[in-house]
């Protein structure tokens, strides 16, 4: 048993906490070493609400299947409580963690409660059995900050929105997998049906069918879950109301073409930020030919200025923007607001993505 546990101790954040012995003892007493070993090449994947509700779940599954990953089982998760989410990430918000992600948990807890997600058990195909699923998916998911991910990774190719809304969660090792499964499923279900699934080998078509059955139960509800597009959408909504009193400003915003999605979230963000910077440096009075603006037009221009200055966002400013727009009967799509708000929560990560990447720069992984 010690040899099996030590195999993961060096690479598992979970096993570096001062309460690790408590965690290990509890899991082994509950399931036994046989069940734990059955999950040695089986991982828990959670497709987060931003992936599910934007209709990206099947695309992400297809991506994984093409890279040698099988889906053993998939279950929609409805009616979760904040407790489920907090328990899932309890060691990421622990003060023992070198990078406690309190902000992400605080921001995302309502999304997991109000919107569905999908839990999956995944493994590697026989062709790459010498590589465990944890090793394979670690390189496939991308940096926890999608803006710093790379082409060929989930969070890049499917345009993750922020460090909090980054599409997928994956357990780190078999010990984490069992601990996290217990958050959502009863122990008898884990020892029985889930344990049995671990011994099955599935074809690519079976993996796709399994995922499709789960995904069809979950309605898509969002726009495109794309942060640069969401920011531009909000500005276009504002400029549509400024076409009469500030037509030059409206035309400037409407003239911008956001690079296509295949360019990845960071390149698209850099293009958007470059465009915003040129507008911020201009004298806004040149956008307003009228000698005096109405109260409404002046307020909408002030909101536009806040949105253009992405590098200075904080949660209070984004709430201010939503409040002003609401007072004029203008509603930001809830998911668009969540994307703006999450990048205000993690504005340091946003600003870091807007800096040139040097050769010495290395992506920082995170479990959120």
From TrEMBL:
<dbReference type="InterPro" id="IPR036850">
    <property type="entry name" value="NDK-like_dom_sf"/>
</dbReference>
<feature type="domain" description="Nucleoside diphosphate kinase-like">
    <location>
        <begin position="40"/>
        <end position="192"/>
    </location>
</feature>
<dbReference type="GO" id="GO:0016301">
    <property type="term" value="F:kinase activity"/>
</dbReference>
<keyword id="KW-0418">Kinase</keyword>
<dbReference type="Pfam" id="PF00334">
    <property type="entry name" value="NDK"/>
</dbReference>
<dbReference type="InterPro" id="IPR034907">
    <property type="entry name" value="NDK-like_dom"/>
</dbReference>
<keyword id="KW-0808">Transferase</keyword>
<protein>
    <submittedName>
        <fullName>Nucleoside diphosphate kinase</fullName>
    </submittedName>
</protein>
<comment type="similarity">
    <text>Belongs to the NDK family.</text>
</comment>
């Amino acid at each position: 048993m010690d040899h099996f546990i030590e195999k993961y101790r060096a690479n598992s954040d979970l096993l570096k906490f001062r309460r690790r012995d408590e965690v290990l003892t509890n899991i082994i007493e509950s399931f036994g070493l046989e069940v734990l070993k059955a999950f040695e090449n089986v991982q828990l994947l959670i497709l987060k609400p931003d992936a599910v509700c934007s209709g990206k779940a099947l695309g992400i599954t297809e991506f994984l299947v093409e890279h040698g990953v099988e889906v053993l089982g998939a279950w929609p998760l409805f009616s979760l409580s904040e407790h489920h989410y907090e328990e899932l990430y309890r060691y990421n918000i622990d003060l023992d963690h070198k990078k406690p992600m309190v902000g992400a948990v605080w921001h995302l807890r309502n999304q997991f409660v109000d919107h569905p997600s999908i839990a999956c058990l995944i493994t590697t195909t026989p062709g790459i059995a010498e590589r465990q699923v944890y090793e394979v998916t670690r390189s496939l998911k991308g940096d926890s900050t999608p803006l710093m991910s790379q082409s060929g990774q989930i969070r890049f190719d499917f345009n993750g929105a922020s460090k909090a809304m980054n599409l997928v969660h994956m357990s780190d090792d078999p010990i984490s997998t069992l601990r996290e499964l217990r958050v959502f499923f009863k122990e008898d279900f884990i020892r029985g049906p889930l344990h049995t699934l671990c011994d099955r080998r599935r074809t690519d078509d079976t993996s796709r069918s399994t995922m499709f059955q789960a995904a069809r139960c979950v309605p898509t509800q969002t726009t495109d879950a794309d942060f640069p597009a969401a920011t531009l959408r909000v500005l276009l909504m504002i400029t549509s109301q400024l076409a009469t009193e500030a037509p030059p400003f409206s035309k400037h915003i409407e003239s911008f073409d956001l690079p296509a999605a295949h360019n990845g979230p960071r390149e698209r963000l850099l293009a958007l930020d470059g465009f915003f910077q040129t507008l911020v440096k201009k004298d806004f009075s040149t956008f307003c030919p009228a000698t005096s603006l109405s109260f409404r037009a002046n307020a909408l221009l002030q909101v536009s200025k806040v949105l253009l200055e992405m590098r200075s966002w904080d949660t209070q400013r984004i709430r201010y923007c939503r409040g002003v727009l609401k007072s004029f009967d203008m509603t930001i799509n809830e998911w668009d607001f969540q994307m703006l708000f999450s990048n205000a929560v993690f504005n340091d990560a946003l600003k870091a993505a807007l800096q040139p990447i040097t050769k010495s720069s290395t992506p920082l992984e995170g479990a959120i």
